[in-house]
Amino acid sequence: MRPIFFFLPLLMLAQSPDDPEAGRKLYLGRCAHCHGQNGEGGRGVALNTGRFRHGGSPEELFRTIRQGIPNTEMPPAPRLPDHEISRMAAWVAQLGRQQAADEKVTGDAEIGAALYKKHACAQCHTLHGVGGFLGPDLTGIGPQRSVRHLRESMVNPGAEIPLDYRTVAITTAKGDRLTGIHLNEDEYSLQMRDPASRLRVFLKSELREVSYPRQSLMPAYALAKAEQDHLIAFLNAETVWRFDRLDSIGGHKTTVLGQPKVIDTPLGKAVEFDGVDDALFIENHPLAGAKTFTWEAIFRPDGGQFEQRWFHLSENGSENRMLYEIRVVGDKWYLDSFNQTGDQGKALMNREALHPLGQWHHVATVYDGKVFRNFVNGVEEGSAEIQFAPQGDGRSSVGVRINKVFYFKGAVHSARFTRRALTPSEFQKLE
Ligand code: HEC
Ligand code: HEC
């Protein structure tokens, strides 16, 4: 009997509710075929980037795994015991801390943009609201999928076809043939999306033949490795932060100061700051490593003190930073965009360019590798030639400067960070 007493605590230790090693085994059996052996992604999103759009806390991961994600391929697991889900959540959290070595995005997003155009990818894919519907919307896909999956998708599209994009081929009674995306089917009818992205409905009684080829409708592209890298950089070139919650922004954990509020606005949810002690700190510098960039934000200044620093990106361990500030004058405001790396620093500020308080505005700063510019509502307000080096990893603050001075009164709706210089026609729309 003795040995049992001896082994019991050890056994309990090995099987503790959040034991990641036990979680790894469960994960390999149930999840790896979609999310990859090491969470590198595939048919499912990458789980090793440290970014979880549905939340990365133990409770949130538990909920995602238990409930699945409605209207996606992520299935619920209603019958698994709680401790198995906890263990998988613990393993997934661990995956989030180990980005694979070969997952680095190395291409040039500008060249990727040109290749995307040259190969007419937009004929079938929507990106930022522009393009066709035959294939999946590629907006924001870069950070969600592994580099390996993106590469495979371009050169060998048939390898992993998402459920919603299976191919169907029909021959009508008259002998016409058509291939499209299989949307729906019942006893009497079949719906497909044809190659021109149109919805088509056929009565089965009018069809001579129906088959389900295991080929993708996407052509396999014979792209050189470097060209794949550039396209992948292009698809990774953009990060969007929606300010619709407080505990996580853009998939990054936040620290909340004071009591910022999530509010409803005509543009959707936004976070409101009181100008006294409200702020959000986000553990990420979204433009770290960017040689060229566009930083956009949609915000509503509501008055308050003269000088306010409402959005600050800061490199760790240095004074290098990118800042949006405003100055409030009566019932108007003007923009100050400041950027500093090393001994190169520049403030763009036009005191004459006044804008009304209490309304939503779009601001942008753009750096093309040579010239730094800023814009309010798509109109250029300043520019300067300057040599900025890419900044290293760091963090961000919203509602205040990173050292907690110059609090902001107003609301922030969203921000978009793009690793290339956009033209005003490519900016986010205020809607
Ligand atoms: C059939 C494929 C499939 C299987 C099996 C699957 N997933 Fe997923 N999973 C997905 C897809 C697709 C998404 C992304 C859904 C979306 O668009 O939000 C996802 C999302 C997730 C997320 C959220 C990621 C985020 O960014 O917040 C987690 C966590 C996750 N899966 C874990 C698991 C675990 C653990 C298992 C095994 C129990 C599993 N998945 C099984 C396809 C799958
Ligand atoms: C004729 C239409 C068509 C064209 C042109 C096309 N695609 Fe696709 N693409 C699809 C379809 C359909 C799918 C979904 C089926 C699949 O994964 O193969 C897809 C899937 C993808 C995926 C995977 C998406 C996911 O959710 O995993 C990526 C990435 C992609 N395409 C990129 C591109 C790029 C880059 C180009 C241009 C070089 C391009 N596509 C051109 C139709 C097209």
Written account of the structure:
The chain has 4 domains: about 15-100, Cytochrome Bc1 Complex, Chain D, domain 2, CATH 1.10.760; about 105-155 and about 220-230, Orthogonal Bundle (Cytochrome Bc1 Complex, Chain D, domain 2), CATH 1.10.760.10; about 165-210, SH3 type barrels; about 235-425, Jelly Rolls. It has about 425 residues and is of the alpha+beta class. It has helices at about 1-15, 20-30, 30-35, 60-65, 80-95, 110-120, 140-145, 145-155, 225-235; strands at about 125, 130, 165-170, 175-185, 190-195, 200-205, 205-210, 240, 250, 250-255, 260-265, 270-275, 280, 295-300, 305-315, 320-330, 330-340, 345-350, 355, 360-365, 370-375, 380-385, 395-400, 410-420. The strands form 4 sheets. Strands 9, 10, 13, 15, 16, 17, 18, 19 and 23 form a 9-stranded antiparallel β-sheet that branches. Strands 8, 11, 12, 14, 20, 21, 22 and 24 form an 8-stranded antiparallel β-sheet that branches. The model is unreliable at about 1-15 (pLDDT under 50). Helix 2 (about 20-30) crosses helix 5 (about 80-95) and helix 6 (about 110-120) crosses helix 9 (about 225-235). The chain binds heme C (2 copies). The site of one heme C has 23 residues, from helix 2, helix 3, helix 4 and helix 5. One heme C (HEC) binds next to helix 2, helix 3, helix 4 and helix 5.
Draw up the topology in text:
Elements: H1 2-14, H2 20-30, H3 32-35, H4 58-67, H5 82-95, H6 109-118, E1 126-127, E2 130-131, H7 141-144, H8 147-155, E3 167-172, E4 177-185, E5 189-193, E6 199-203, E7 207-211, H9 225-235, E8 238-242, E9 248-249, E10 252-257, E11 261-265, E12 268-274, E13 279-282, E14 293-301, E15 307-315, E16 321-329, E17 332-341, E18 344-349, E19 355-356, E20 361-367, E21 371-376, E22 379-385, E23 394-398, E24 409-418
Antiparallel strand pairs: 1-2, 3-4, 3-7, 4-5, 5-6, 8-24, 9-10, 10-13, 11-12, 12-24, 13-23, 14-20, 14-24, 15-16, 15-23, 16-17, 17-18, 17-19, 20-21, 21-22
Helix pairs in contact: 2-5, 4-5, 6-9
Bound molecules: heme C (HEC) (2 copies).
